[in-house]
Write a structure and sequence with these properties.
By secondary structure, the protein is of the alpha+beta class. It contains 17 helices and 8 strands.
Length: about 500
């Protein structure tokens, strides 16, 4: 559902004018003092109290009470302060007629000061990757599935506030943390030598989050898919009833506006974990971004290590080697020392396919058969006796590979036709499968669960569809190489006859 914008949402905000006014320092000091007193539960303040408090800070030079009165009236005109007549402390008629006032922060001003207080603490993106939020979300959604029809008054709103607060905090913290890894400060820090000491902890932190994401977040996805529209409406209606039942001294949002906000929040939660047919879920994007962050950290550490090795001084080693050469009296001994230190000259690097006869890691190179390579001379002198190199042919390998692919395609087509004859079939109803058929079936299930539509089309035009059961019932997939306990999915193969016909 698209966000709804009202004329009130497009109005000018005069309450922000004091942040860009000429005397911004005076206005900020006055508002800061009144907000500090508001946090101490002191709401209505007289001008003398505001002036004494600001003057005690010592941040404004030659600040007078008349300037404070003028500032308070300006802030009142912008809508940051509300005032009332203060006649209780008047000692004479003249003093009463001077219209002494008391000032109170407006709701807009309170939120602005809270925002400014938060901005003062910002020193980077911050954020964190915590998997505990997934546990909170899982427990709340599980409670909705089990007790949505039985919530007592007040329980539904507490569940919703706990659920959405955990979801919102998790999303914001994760987005901020991933953004901090790609910031300029992080790029500069990853280029310093000190980053090597942090690399292991950072990689372990990211890997721990990916594991928690894969185990906890995908469990939430399955829970959300089991909540139908009817159960969702019952739950949100109870949340709406609890929200309306709260006593309010001021006019709030209408029930219809609250209902729209609740549906929007639920859709945000579902889209984040499940996605839709047009886009990947935010869960998938977060997992991908975290893995890319791990790769980036590892690449930066490798570059630092290579730079450290490349810049290492070999002066002492070379001086010691020079003294060794100077101590030798025989040229033959000097040749032997040079061979030990520098190796054979000149060396040649041969590149090609290594046809190994064994995969043993402890097998010696000398025990294997040699690979014969024809080397063409680089000499410019033309030799009349040189034989031409025969043209290489790979027709035998290509034919063998072609036969292998055709056999694989035939096996796959036979299995597709076998499944098509069965029609809609559950895992528990399948006959005993061959090992290759079992692997192919698990690949189908993986491809179907990776898409929002739970379907995909094979190269031959067959449509493979997967239906996830509503009940958490296990089934046994039987095959020649063993049995596998899994969910009792419903699989349907159809559509191939229309393509071939």
């Amino acid at each position: 559902m698209d966000p709804i914008i009202t004329p009130a949402g497009m109005r000018a905000v005069p309450e922000l004018s004091y942040l860009t006014a000429i005397n911004v320092a005076r206005y900020r000091a006055v508002m800061k003092f009144i907000y500090t007193e508001y946090q101490r539960l002191k709401y209505w303040l007289r001008p003398e109290e505001v002036y004494e408090g600001v003057h005690a800070w010592g941040v404004l030079e030659s600040y007078t009470l008349e300037q404070c009165l003028s500032d308070l009236e300006s802030l009142k005109g912008w809508g940051n302060l509300a005032s009332r007549h203060d006649g209780g402390r008047a000692l004479s008629v003249e003093e009463y007629m001077r219209k002494k006032s008391q000032y109170l922060l407006t709701p807009y001003a309170i939120e602005i000061e809270r925002m400014l207080e938060s901005l003062e603490k910002v020193k980077g993106y911050g954020g964190s990757l915590e998997t505990t939020y997934f546990d909170t979300i899982t427990s709340c959604i599980h409670e909705v599935r089990l007790r949505a029809m039985e919530f007592a008054p007040g329980e539904a709103i507490r569940n919703w506030e706990k659920l959405y607060e955990a979801f919102k905090t998790m999303h914001e913290n994760a987005a901020d943390f991933i953004a901090s890894i790609h910031s300029i400060q992080a790029e500069e820090m990853m280029a310093t030598e000190g980053f090597l000491a942090l690399k292991d902890n950072l990689v372990n932190y990211l890997q721990h989050f990916v594991k928690g994401l894969q185990s906890g977040a995908y469990k939430i996805e399955g829970q959300l898919q089991r909540i139908g529209d009817g159960l969702r409406e019952v739950y949100l209606d109870k949340v709406l009833e609890d929200e309306i039942a709260k006593p309010r001294l001021e006019e709030g949002k209408s029930p219809e506006e609250l209902r729209v906000e609740l549906h929007q929040g639920w859709n945000n939660l579902k889209r984040w974990f499940i996605g839709d047919e047009q886009e990947f879920s935010e869960l998938t994007l977060l997992e991908r971004a975290t893995k890319e962050a791990i790769a980036k950290v590892v690449r930066s550490a490798v570059r630092l290590q290579e730079r450290r090795r490349g810049g290492m001084s070999r002066r002492n080693d070379l001086e010691a080697l020079g003294r060794k050469f100077a101590q030798l009296d025989n040229l033959e001994e000097a040749h032997k020392l040079a061979a030990y230190v520098f190796g054979l000259f000149p060396s040649r690097h041969l590149q090609g396919q290594d046809e190994r006869s064994t995969e043993r890691a402890d097998a010696s190179t000398w025990d294997e058969m040699p690979n014969v390579r024809l080397i063409r001379t680089r000499s410019r002198k033309r030799s009349s006796k040189s034989a031409s190199e025969p043209m290489r042919t790979y027709s035998v390998k290509r034919e063998a590979y072609r036969e292998q692919l055709l056999l694989q395609f035939e096996e796959e087509r036979a299995f597709v036709e076998k499944m098509e004859e069965l029609g809609k079939v559950q895992i528990a109803e399948l006959p005993v499968l061959k090992s290759k058929e079992r692997m192919r079936l698990l690949q189908w299930i993986g491809r179907c669960t990776a898409t929002a539509s739970r379907t995909f089309i094979t190269a031959d035009g067959y449509r493979i569809s997967l239906t996830i059961p509503n009940q958490e019932l296990d089934a046994v997939l039987r095959s020649e190489d063993g049995n596998l306990t899994m969910r009792n999915y419903m699989i349907e193969v159809a559509g191939g006859e229309t393509i071939h016909g």
